[in-house]
Specification:
Distance between the termini: 37 Å
Order of helices and strands: HEHHHEHEHEEEEEHEHEHEEEEHEHHE
Strand content: 15-25%
Helix content: 25-40%
Structural class: alpha/beta
Largest sheet: 8 strands, mixed
């Protein structure tokens, strides 16, 4: 792990001080409460601080940060819908530094398909400032709106790229005799430690309904807040599409016997690891997405699950990558662009592990890029 800078160490000390005060009142925290604190505490949480999170100098690199081609493919896929519905807007959830929004807007402008407005729902004040600086200088004739709650009376496309993986999860454990336990966090001698407790009834009931899950010496995660979160995001929509892109699996893949330690990952300065007790408030905590659970939550809200595919098939299905003429680029740019395409599309990189799911509300449109390979049968 990289050495901590002075500013980072001081922030880490503030995080530990607040955790100490929490554990003076409580003997333990559920993993979900611990994750909620580490990521979203308004004073010291990971997303509340101003430290660099995205890009080569941050903790991780998302697809839009890898290449503007990702946003251009999304724009290419959405342009026909926006031309057909000029009253539609785009609302991006968790837009980070605004890199995806910038590439989408620039490409939609080139295609004469700008939305009525581009709305950004962001919890971090620091990131909202970065978004404003990046997007307002574009001056494309598209209204830029910053939201502090999900949109209401909304018509259009709600876009979430790597948002679902940031939702808080419970972590659970089946021991050697099959008892279902809740993973918790405690503190001993000012040091964070792992604990397990008998799972409370809501958690026990929910994991008990997962078919074919291994029941011995098995650890995994479940996002109990996903149904309520999806309801809050979609309830203000009158008509339109929810398009989610994230790394994840169908449920049978998610809870496979080979994945016996779950999907939880931590990210700090381009280092990925599993020690979620290290660097609380300083590192990103994330779990892969169970797309079957997302689909079931959507159906319970009377949303239609119209398509589910891999990132590679979505990007290729947009048709944009096939229009690129790499021979017009100089050797350095041609090499860089080829590397970016490989990272975004090859199965060994992001092409297979990242998935797209389209949900509809009061409309029957299927994004053409979602139809190249439909994987809903895997859900």
């Amino acid at each position: 792990m990289p050495e901590l800078a002075l500013e980072v160490r001081k922030h880490g000390e503030r995080v530990v001080e607040k955790l100490l005060s929490i554990f003076e009142a409580k003997y333990w925290l559920s993993f979900a409460d611990y994750m909620q604190f580490c990521l979203y505490d308004p004073e010291v949480g990971y997303y509340s601080g101003g430290m660099q999170k995205f890009g080569p100098d941050g903790d991780f690199i998302t697809a839009p940060e890898i290449s503007p081609l990702f946003g251009q493919c999304v724009a290419e896929a959405l342009a026909p819908l926006l031309k057909k519905h000029p009253d539609w807007s785009i609302c991006e959830l968790g837009p980070g530094r605004g890199v995806l929004a910038e590439s989408i807007l620039l490409h939609l402008d080139m295609l004469n398909a700008l939305p009525k407005s581009y709305q950004l729902l962001e919890v971090s004040a620091n990131l909202r400032h970065q978004q404003s600086e990046r997007l307002h200088k574009l001056d494309l004739g598209c209204e830029i709106q910053h939201l502090d709650k999900p949109p209401e009376q909304f018509r259009g496309i709600i876009l979430g790229n790597e948002v679902l993986d940031a939702l808080v999860v419970e972590r659970f454990y089946f021991d050697s005799v099959g008892y279902d336990l809740q993973c918790c966090i405690g503190m001993e001698k000012n040091k964070l430690v792992e604990l397990t407790k008998f799972a409370p009834e809501p958690l026990r009931h929910t994991i008990g309904e997962i078919p074919n899950i291994p029941k011995y010496n098995y650890t995994s995660e479940i996002c109990l807040q996903l149904p309520a979160w999806l309801k809050s995001i979609s309830s203000g929509m009158l008509e339109g599409i929810l398009l989610f892109a994230d790394y994840g699996f169908s449920q049978s893949e998610y809870y496979s016997p080979e994945r016996s330690d779950g999907t939880l990952r931590c990210h700090y300065r381009q280092h990925a690891h599993n020690n979620y007790l290290a660097l609380p408030g300083l590192q990103d905590l994330t779990a892969w997405v169970n797309f079957t659970q997302l689909g079931e939550a959507a159906l319970a809200l009377d949303l239609d699950v119209v398509a589910y595919t891999t990132q590679a098939h979505f990007l290729l299905g947009s048709g944009h990558l096939q229009t690129l003429d790499l021979n017009k680029l100089d050797e350095k740019c041609r090499y860089q662009t080829s590397r970016e395409i490989q990272t975004l599309t090859l199965p060994a990189n992001m092409g297979e592990s990242f998935r797209f799911m389209q949900l509809n509300k009061n409309c029957d449109i299927i994004i053409p890029a979602m139809q190249l390979r439909d994987l809903r049968h895997q859900l």
